[in-house]
Amino acid sequence: MKKLIIALLIVCALAGGVIGFLSYRSEKPGTIGGADEPTSILVNDTDTAEPESAAEEEAYTLRVPDYAAIYATHEPDEVVATVDGRDVTWGEYFYLYFSQAKQIENYFATMASYYGAAPDWDAQVEEDSDATFADMPVEGAESTLRQIFAIESLAAKGEVELTDEQLAAIREQEETDIVGAVGEGATAEDFNAYIETIFLPRTLYDRMNRINYLYRQGFVQAYGENGELVEDGTALQYLADNDYMAATHILLRTTDPATYEALDEKVAAEKQAKAEEIAAELQAIEDDAERLARFAELKAEYCEDTGKAAYPDGYVFLPGRMVAVFEETVLSLEDYQVSDPVLSEHGWHVIMRLPLDPDGVIEYSNDGTALTARSKAANEAYGKELQDTFDSLTVDYVEGFTVPKLTDYLK
Fold it and tell me: What value does the CA radius of gyration of the chain take, rounded to a whole number of Å?
């Protein structure tokens, strides 16, 4: 079973299928990459020996497919396959096939440049697989088609409607692509003429530009912008099923945070004494709410954890993510119970275990968004739904159609 690239990875991959075509821009009309002859990727790096003979030079020369000849084997509007009962034309299929093949060409060039590896379309992709590099454009095209149809199917099922802002963003992306592809002052007609030279149907371009927004809007309508529509019970069950723990601590460092060198023994002893004093005070408080409030005050005053600013309320974490003594101590505590001071390689910790919270920050995404149990549970559920839809789809070729064999068209 081909695994779907879940969440943002799939969206980025699909977007790359549209935006990435700009890297294939022809340097003269009607050609791909501005080259009519086989593309040479001879290694010229000073650290790699250059070919010493014509035979060796030929071995390091990449034979590229004659894409125009392959494309000409069928009419662009000919239906060559169906996915979930919906038609796929040759023009749509071929662009995805072409895009995958160009990525393999780039891979060959990289491997030759860095490792001196000779490009070979007939080589096995993996040692334990019969699939060759020449098979990959077909597999890639099929996988991308299933991804597109899976997202569109989920969007239809959820009655997803794009917002005015999203529609405006799509138009803005088109304007950016027009300038990037054919220059300032170019028209939509100029752009359409250009994308024909790289085998991209305008209908597929528009369709794929919508995919990102359909995917995102489907999530928002079902779960909220950041999973806020997920119920408490579902979020807590996600935490429990994945063995999450929650705790806050006061760290008194016995090592320099910059160099990790041990502090003076006298200073370290003073830190230990302070940790024991803090723990004793907190353990003497009988009311959980009062103990939690006092813990926060002492943490603000004494805690030397460099992560305190990002995680002021403590950590929600999986087994194996914290130093062993910290995790072991948390597991030994009841909710709101305070530990005796424990020593790690960082210093003395006074730890309070916390109850799991649907809105506790687990981590931050690359764009700085706080991910909570609600958002993580929502992503897991949405990803599973998309994966299940993807797995249920197949690319069924129409009777009599056979994908042209790439190696029959090398030049």
Answer: 29
The domain locations on the chain are 7-229+387-409, 245-353
The owner of tokens 């995102």 is 216
What's the per-residue H, E or C state across 346-398? CEEEEEEECCCCCCCEEEECCCCCEEEHHHHHHHHHHHHHHHHHHHHCCEEEC
Whole-structure pTM value: 0.76
User: For 340-350, what is each residue's pLDDT tens digit?
Assistant: 999 999 999 99
Residue 5 predicted with pLDDT over 50: no
Q: Are 77 and 91 in contact (CB under 8 A)?
A: yes
What separation in angstroms does the CA of 22 have from each of 16, 26, 67, 342?
10, 9, 17, 57
CA distance 374 to 111: 43
DSSP letter (8 states) at residue 242: T
Measured distance CA(63)–CA(409) in Å, rounded: 9
Strand spans (E) along 160-280:
245-253
Question: If we measure between CA atoms, which residue out of 2, 1, 385, 20 comes closest to residue 208?
Answer: 20
**371 closest CA partner among 384, 358, 385, 383:** 358
Is residue 190 predicted with pLDDT exceeding 90?
yes
**Which structure tokens are listed for 157?**
């099922």
Task: Identify whether the C-beta of residue 123 lies closer than 8 Å to the C-beta of residue 171.
Answer: no
**Beta carbons within 10 angstroms of residue 402's beta carbon:** 8
Contacts of 162 (CB under 8 A, 6+ apart): 170, 210, 213, 214, 217
Spatial separation of the C-alpha atoms in residues 200 and 95, rounded to whole Å: 6
What is the CATH T-level fold of the domain 245-353, as seen in this structure? Chitinase A; domain 3 (3.10.50)
pLDDT beyond 60 at 7: no
Query: For residue 8, what are its two tokens?
Result: 């943002």
Answer for the pair 17, 212: CB distance below 8 angstroms, yes or no: no
d(CA 321, CA 308): 16
In order of 78, 89, 402, 403, the CA distances from 74 in angstroms are 7, 10, 11, 10
Residue whose pair of structure tokens reads 């071929």 in the numeric block: 94
